[in-house]
C-alpha cells in the first residue's frame, strides 16, 4: 500500500526512478530497521541495497523488496545502481538532497549516466498520516509517558537535582515497557526552565520552582512527545498568570484543530493569545510539529506552513513562554486528526499543578 501510494506520487511528478537514503524513510517503506541501506524504486521494481552485515536481516524484514548485497570494497553505490538501471529505459534519477552528503552526490554524478535531480519529500508526506498499526504504537508510547509522569511527580522534592529527577523519569519509562527514550529528556527548574531545550543539570530544586519536563517514550520506532510544567510548592500570582496565558493559547489552538486548517493558521491562533498578553516579548517560535518515526517530522506547525491538516496526521500542540531570569512554561500534547476534529493521545493534567513540599 505504501509503495503503491509512493508510485502514484512519482507518476504525477514524472519520476522515472527514486533513490532513498534517509533511514526512517527506508524503514517506513521497506520495514528495514538496520543502519546501512538505500532504496531504489522504479515504476515496477523496488530494490534494497545493503551489504553482508544486513543481508539476512533485510531478507527477513523486507519481503516485497529485491535484496542486493553489495561488496563495498569492489563496487560503489553508483556502480551498483548503474548496473540495476542499465536494462531499463531510465535517464533520470531523483535523489533525497536533504539526506545526501556532498561526497556521495559527487560520486553518483560521476558514475551514473543519468540526470540527477532533487526529489520532493514524498515519503515524509506519506508518513504524516498514520495507519492503525502506527497509531497503536503512538498511543502506547503516549500512555507510557502519561504513566511515568504520574509516578514521578510525587517523587519530586526539595533538594533533588534536575539530573536525579530526569534519571528517575527515564528509568520509569523503560520499566513501563518503552523500547527506547523518544529523545534525551529535558528537565529544568527555576529560571533554567526558560531554556527551551536545555539539559538537566546539578541545580537543586527550591520551594516555588518551576519544573519543566519535556520527554517521551519510543515503541517499535514510534515516539511520544509531551511537556508539562509544574510548580514545586505554592505558585505566585505571576506564575499563575504566566502559566494561564500558555494554557489559554493551547486551548485556543486545540479548539480550532480540524481537517482543512493549515499549520500557519493554527500557529497564528495560538500566537494571537500569547502576543496579546503582558508576556508578548517572551513568546516561543512555532506551535508544534508532526511526530512519528521521527521526533520532528512533516508538517512543522509554524508561520508560513501551508500544509493542510488531514485525518490521520499526528501532531504536537505546544505553545510556550520563556522569560529569562524568571522561567519558562510549555504545555505540549500529542493529538491525532480525525474526520471532524482531533483526539488526544496524551492525557496528563494540563491545569497548573502545585506539588506539595
From TrEMBL:
<dbReference type="InterPro" id="IPR000994">
    <property type="entry name" value="Pept_M24"/>
</dbReference>
<dbReference type="Pfam" id="PF01321">
    <property type="entry name" value="Creatinase_N"/>
</dbReference>
<dbReference type="InterPro" id="IPR029149">
    <property type="entry name" value="Creatin/AminoP/Spt16_N"/>
</dbReference>
<protein>
    <submittedName>
        <fullName>Xaa-Pro peptidase family protein</fullName>
    </submittedName>
</protein>
<feature type="domain" description="Peptidase M24">
    <location>
        <begin position="137"/>
        <end position="338"/>
    </location>
</feature>
<dbReference type="InterPro" id="IPR036005">
    <property type="entry name" value="Creatinase/aminopeptidase-like"/>
</dbReference>
<feature type="domain" description="Creatinase N-terminal">
    <location>
        <begin position="2"/>
        <end position="129"/>
    </location>
</feature>
<dbReference type="InterPro" id="IPR001714">
    <property type="entry name" value="Pept_M24_MAP"/>
</dbReference>
<dbReference type="InterPro" id="IPR050659">
    <property type="entry name" value="Peptidase_M24B"/>
</dbReference>
<dbReference type="InterPro" id="IPR000587">
    <property type="entry name" value="Creatinase_N"/>
</dbReference>
<dbReference type="Pfam" id="PF00557">
    <property type="entry name" value="Peptidase_M24"/>
</dbReference>
